[in-house]
Amino acid sequence: MSAYYNEIDPFAAQWLRNLIAKDLIATGDVDERSIIEVQPDDLKGYDQCHFFAGIGGWSYALRRAGWADDRPVWTGSCPCQSFSSAATARQDRRGDARHLWPAWRPLIAECLPRTVFGEQTAQAGDWFDEVCDDVESLGYSIGASVLPACSIGQDHARFRLYFAGHANRHGKPRKSGDAEMARLPRLGSERPIVAGEDGVSNRMATMRAYGNSVVPQVAAEVIKAYMECRP
């Protein structure tokens, strides 16, 4: 089965198609609709579903971690603008139209993927409280860590909150906590983003795509930690 990528930005969506064509990320279909328009039936037949897909960082990270393209998983990096240091006051954040966890949650609730990986800016603690409550109510264990890009040898911090949810088919939901997330080793410097298509001339669009992308080398270590706990 192929992968499903949901990405509303046309520039990033075309970048995804370029990477798929070069076999740098899992083969799949790119859907440019808003996640608000996506229905559970649209996701039938896909092994992997990547929401807010950007330029394919999660698919690239899965491959780096040794996660096969046909092993089921969902990923998502919800928009972070509502939770950045430049965002409005905390009490206003959940009213921001860019706060799209409420659009992703019903898809998870309906389809119940076995594994969900996600990422958000480290300042979004109140957002993650909501995510934990929602995901655990659906019968998932959830573990999380705040990890910087410098943990894999980069020269910048870029702290991000990474989380992994595991569907419990038996027993009551429980919170995994940080204990199930392995401590990241220091891995040597690498470029932290998936390379784009040659000939891209729109520098601002390129930088926006880079800036919104997950750091695959860090995400891969989170995935490996999960695989050690949930082979």
Description:
This protein has 231 residues and is of the alpha/beta class. It has a single domain, classed as Rossmann fold (3-Layer(aba) Sandwich). Helix content is 32%, strand content 17%. The protein is built from seven helices and seven strands, in the order E-H-E-E-H-E-H-H-E-H-E-E-H-H. It has helices at residues 10-21, 57-65, 90-93, 101-111, 125-137, 203-212, 216-229, and strands at 3-6, 28-31, 48-51, 73-76, 115-121, 140-147, 160-167. Strands 2-1-3-4-5-7-6 form a seven-stranded mixed beta sheet, with helices on both faces. Helix 1 links the parallel strand 1 (3-6) and strand 2. Helix 2 (57-65) packs across helix 7 (216-229). The chain is globular and about 35 Å long.
